[in-house]
Design brief:
This protein has one domain: Spore Coat Polysaccharide Biosynthesis Protein SpsA, Chain A (Alpha-Beta Complex). It contains six helices and eleven strands. It has a seven-stranded mixed sheet, sandwiched between helices. A two-stranded antiparallel sheet has the order 2-3.
């Protein structure tokens, strides 16, 4: 049960190299509408007043951070990232160990989702705040969904009404999330997102419908799409 004293902490894992995007540098350090991707993502989280602090597990010594002005904000704290996303999130959780209670909330967001809106984050917080476990933003699957074998032949057409695209932020109780990620890692299971870890621990995760334009930058062409989305958002 939520209490009025439950705080909300942010974690933005940013240690990934994004080799699918570029060998030159991590995708969060590419230019997007005049700023680096990381600056956009962190700035949008800073706009959410309910967040107590934002932990950024990352390669602290990476010189590109000097071009991300908001990383020096007092509300943001960098810590050493991990080899995989789950390791980085766990490092972020451990960094909060002395200030967060088990019943507090942790909101985890991808550094490569710069188009997230404060409205969607606040909606997630509003819907999830009384839930015992937590929830994530999701998007509908609007196209026909196919199951494809390793030989690239289609084996089935899947009922898309039973599927959603997982997004971030993902928001869970601090104690439950730390326990769930630790349990996965101890079993040599690498959770692809926080919801996976929570599900593996036997808990039910709430799905909250979010905007379709909460794009995750994964490949080079996604930068142009993100730029168009941001331009559109500015006129709304």
């Amino acid at each position: 049960m939520t209490t009025n004293t439950s705080k909300i902490w942010g974690i933005v894992p940013a240690a990934g190299q994004g080799k699918r995007f570029s060998e030159a540098k991590p995708k969060q350090f590419f230019q997007l509408n005049g700023q680096l991707v990381a600056e956009h993502s962190l700035s949008r989280l800073l706009a959410v007043s309910q967040l107590e602090q934002i932990i950024v597990p990352s390669d602290i010594d990476c010189s590109w951070w000097s071009q991300v002005p908001c990383i020096s904000q007092t509300k943001i704290k960098q810590v050493v990232g991990g080899e995989q996303r789950a390791n980085s999130v766990l490092n972020g959780l451990l960094a909060l160990d002395q200030v967060a209670s088990d019943n507090d909330w942790v909101l985890v967001h991808d550094i490569a989702r710069p188009c997230i809106t404060a409205e969607d984050i606040n909606q997630l917080i509003s819907v999830v705040k009384d839930h015992p476990v937590g929830g994530i933003l999701v998007a509908t699957v609007d196209e026909t969904l196919k199951k494809v074998a390793v030989d690239n032949h289609i084996t089935a057409t899947v009922d898309r009404t039973e599927h959603k695209l997982a997004q971030t932020p993902q928001m869970f109780r601090y104690g439950l999330l730390k326990q769930a990620i630790c349990a996965c890692l101890e079993q040599n299971i690498m959770p692809t997102d926080e919801a996976f870890a929570i599900e593996s621990a036997g808990h039910k995760v709430l799905a909250v419908e979010g905007r379709r334009d909460n794009l995750k930058i994964t490949r080079e062409e996604d930068l142009a799409i993100a730029a168009a989305i941001m331009t559109s958002q500015e006129t709304q």
